[in-house]
Amino acid sequence: MLVSFLFGGEAMVSKSDSVCAYPGCSRTTSGRYCEVHSDTTKQKYKDYDRERSDQQEVSFYNSKPWKDVRAAVLQRDFYLCQQCKRQGITTFGNIVHHIVELKDDWSLRLDMNNLETVCSACHNQEHTKTKKGLNTSTKNLVIVVVGLPGSGKSTFVYNNCDKERDIVIDMDELISTMTFKPIHDRTLNAYDSTEMVNDMIKTVIDNLTLEKYKFKRVWLIRSTLSTSESNKLKRINCKFVHIIRQRSLCEHTVEVAGRTIQSNVFTQIEDNITKMKQILKVEEYEAYEKIKF
């Protein structure tokens, strides 16, 4: 920088320099803004451009052409989530999603070939992919804990859950509460209630995928999941845990507790867990381990 110094070191700006254009700044610079305010100004213009773009999108989504096309897409797709449909799952959808986002190609905003019906879970998942740096661990978390009877699933959850904030869905506890029977008792009304509780849990799983609930963490304790349940839960912020324990020890624990579970039931659960692991990322823990989030 070319400057000449006068009285006590005060700088006189040469003809090749100018004062920074940022309000209140007296620094000299060869450009429009000094080094300190160059990035600040760039960010200001970026914020302005983004705000202008957001206003344009808001105006678009309130327009009659969009509302007409949206209605046509919903009718075309029979109000079914197309992303779920491609996975063999039938899910109600009432959101029309731009496959190529508006900010990437404004010209496709009313192109029905660029639009599809999705459910809220799939829509949120799509937009999560486009947000760099999004910390999904802060979202609602569902933790599914599976394992053989007697493996220690409930013990694992009890040792790891936040007893002030978390919600635990345990089939055995639900049946016991509904029938006043001891835990694991499956006689008379406890036996009759099993199908009801299974239906309740299936409904909860459906509602979790639709993001109908507000919660910090939900723990779902099951011996295993069906393929349909696995496919639904893998689309949300879900962690899958398998409590591992030698089968003979599990069978012994069940027998000592006075429970009767046929050997083929253990085999079926093991087979189902193997199928789960073919389509899901499943972490393995022992009953007394601490979970890693």
The third-level CATH topology of the largest domain is Rossmann fold
Work out the helicity level: 40-55%
Radius of gyration, taken over Cα atoms and rounded to an integer in Å = 29 Å
| Main β sheet profile | 5 strands, parallel
Strand content: 15-25%
Spell the H/E element sequence.
EEEEHHHEEHEHEHHEHEHHE
GO molecular function, one term: hydrolase activity
Family: Belongs to the HNH nuclease family.
Keywords: Hydrolase, Nuclease
InterPro entries: HNH, HNH_nuc, P-loop_NTPase
Report on this model:
The chain is α/β, with parallel strands linked by helices. It has two domains: 54-130; 141-286, Rossmann fold, CATH 3.40.50. Helices cover 44% and strands 15% of the residues. It has a five-stranded parallel beta sheet, sandwiched between helices. InterPro entries: HNH, HNH_nuc, P-loop_NTPase.
Which terms summarize this structure?
293 residues; alpha/beta; Rossmann fold; 2 domains; 5-stranded parallel β-sheet; two-stranded antiparallel ribbon; elongated
Give a short summary of the structure.
The protein is an alpha/beta fold and 293 residues long. It has helices spanning 35-61, 64-76, 82-86, 120-130, 153-160, 171-179, 189-209, 227-233, 247-256, 263-279, and strands at residues 3-6, 10-13, 18-19, 28-29, 95-98, 115-118, 141-146, 167-170, 217-221, 238-243, 282-285.
